[in-house]
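task queued by scheduler; priority normal; single chain, no ligands, no partner chains; default sampling; output format set to structure tokens
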Amino acid sequence: MTERNFKNLEIIWRTIFAVMVNGLQIPLFKIKIKCPDCGSSMIGTNGTKKSGSNRVECFICKNPACLKERSKRKRKKGRQFIVTTSFEYKKLINSKLKQLYYDLLKDGAKNKTIAKKYGVSPSQISVLRTEIETAIEKHQTLDSLVNIPQPDRAIAIDETFLEIEGKPIYIIVATGYESRKTLGIKVSPTRKEKDMREVFDEAERNTKYPIAIVTSDAWGSTIAMVKNLGREIIHVIHKHKKPFGKAVIKLHEYTDTERITTEIGVKTDITKKRAKREGYYMTTRAPLNPPPSKKKGRPKGSNNKRKKNPPKTKKKQGKRGRI
């Protein structure tokens, strides 16, 4: 009986595309497909599978050592995966995207130079740069990342996102109002409170003085981040929904035991024209160490068990008739 001749496996490369907010698709860079378990490039294609409304390409690991390891866990086949769960994707996507955005926001970085570095055309880099600047220009004009601490006391935090292989990747940016420079940036698959805090901390490391004012949209994670800084700070919130043209200003102050928040609602055109100035405010107090919440429901124990009601007996109904 002759042994089976296995096909020589070739290294598989795939291009990662970014889908902008307006639906424009831009190729970013190529990655080598590797097994997420063993990191081997001995990979074969494995058909497709449904993901949302589309179908995505699947791969299977054909490394004998990896298959042997899986057989110990009673797995008959090699590891099956898609691009977004591959080893190289998880390792490189965030670092490469962050480096790409650093390159795009630097002073004097030419499209041709960046395109050569990432293996794409200069026109694609030009489109990508325009999309980023348009998305973030709501607050400030982006100039460059800083090399020395800046004199800013007020920053704007905003985020935009790309869709890569069907999954959102967020770019969170903090810019200074006085220097008009990018003070902090993070590329992340999430935009949780800890992500916003990392961008805020990076921005504060790039300023000479502590940040006293933060401007942002009404995203809950940013609001929670500013509230939980634990120091006096002003938060200006511009809500991107109706009614437009209004802002909420929050002043967070602290005592030894509680946080005092004063909220003021104003129109955003108060400095543009002469008119009657109206504002609404309220003050709330919250303890810094609130008591633990009680568990809902009846306490456990035999004496506290609810007695079962006896089964209800049906009443016999008599025959109706005329008298």
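post-processing summary
- The longest strand covers residues 154-164.
- The two ends are 101 Å apart (CA to CA).
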